[in-house]
């Protein structure tokens, strides 16, 4: 069950109980959450999270929970989440990217207070839970949080600022060098396209006005050399010309941005006569 679902149940229960209290009395306070703290949170092994235009992506999370010795591990559940803003607040309309299931925790040998935990987070471009569906505006940096929920009272404890990660729109890059074969000294035209996942339309779309390097590697060489840098068109298209000098391979290389990962195209061989 999603952690958010438990929080909604908890806050809903508090709201219903408040309605039953006479107006002259104070509304009941929300139940306190487990007295735990989180540390050592790592999402996706510390790597950026890259999501395509349609498919769900599941990433791993590992973290440490420290609890009072008297608090039973079986009395609460935990899970990680990604959020934006100054604080994390599941009891609101704040967008939180979380997991379909709670984390699993194991006691550290010889300790009554430390648990080592693991969980997963699911990211979806296509509709599922409206509050957690990715849109293009979601690409970029997210803060990392964790939550613990008391399984009896549904009181919850949150802790934010456990690190950051980037959620990025998957990129693709192509290269096509023509004509082939070509005479030495003649003009080679190298075309291509830089595109990235569009989470609003569930397709790939051109990434405009981005600097992309054209690189060449002579047959038998081990290293690539940069020939020039050009920018993509308004549709993500690439086109430039070079003089044929020797047999070898051309490729385009994109360094990436905060919202879009770096990508190299496949190499395209050119036969120079």
Order of helices and strands: HEEEEEEEEEEEEEEEEEEE
Number of domains: 2
Mean pLDDT across the residues is 91
Shape call? elongated
Helix content: under 10%
The tally of helices reads 1
The major pleated sheet works out as: 6 strands, mixed
Looking at the overall shape, the CATH architecture of the largest domain is Sandwich
Radius of gyration: 26 Å
User: What ranges have pLDDT less than 50 throughout 5 or more consecutive residues?
Assistant: 9-21
- Class by helix and strand content? mainly beta
Number of strands: 19
End-to-end span in angstroms? Answer: 64 Å
CATH topological fold name of the largest domain: Immunoglobulin-like
Keywords: Signal
Protein name: Calcium-binding protein
Organism: Streptomyces vulcanius
What would your notes on this structure say?
Helices cover 6% and strands 45% of the residues. The chain is mainly beta. The protein has 2 domains: 3-168, Sandwich (Immunoglobulin-like), CATH 2.60.40; 171-270, Sandwich (Immunoglobulin-like). The model is unreliable at 9-21 (pLDDT under 50).
């Amino acid at each position: 069950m999603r952690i958010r679902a438990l929080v909604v149940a908890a806050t809903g229960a508090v709201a219903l109980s408040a309605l039953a209290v006479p107006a002259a009395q104070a509304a009941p306070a929300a139940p306190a959450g487990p007295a735990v703290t989180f540390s050592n949170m790592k999402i996706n092994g510390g790597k950026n999270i890259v999501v395509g235009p349609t498919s769900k992506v599941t990433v791993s999370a590992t973290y440490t929970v420290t609890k009072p010795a008297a608090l039973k591990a079986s009395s609460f559940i935990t899970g990680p989440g990604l959020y934006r803003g100054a604080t994390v607040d599941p009891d609101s309309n704040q967008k939180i990217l979380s997991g379909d299931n709670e984390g699993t925790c194991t006691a550290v040998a010889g300790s009554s207070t430390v648990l080592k935990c693991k969980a997963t987070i699911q990211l979806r471009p296509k509709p599922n839970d409206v509050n957690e569906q990715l849109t293009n505006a979601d690409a970029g940096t997210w803060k990392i949080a964790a939550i613990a929920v008391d399984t009896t009272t549904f009181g919850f404890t949150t802790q934010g600022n456990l690190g950051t990660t980037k959620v990025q729109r998957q990129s693709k890059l192509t290269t096509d060098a023509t004509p082939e074969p070509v005479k030495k000294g003649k003009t080679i035209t190298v075309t291509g396209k830089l595109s990235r996942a569009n989470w609003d339309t569930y397709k790939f779309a051109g990434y405009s006005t981005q600097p992309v390097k054209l690189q060449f590697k002579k047959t038998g060489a081990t290293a690539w050399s940069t020939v020039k840098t050009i920018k993509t068109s308004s549709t993500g298209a690439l086109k430039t010309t070079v003089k044929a000098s020797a047999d070898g391979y051309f490729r385009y290389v994109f360094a990436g941005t905060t919202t879009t990962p770096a990508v190299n195209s496949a190499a395209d061989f050119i036969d120079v006569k």
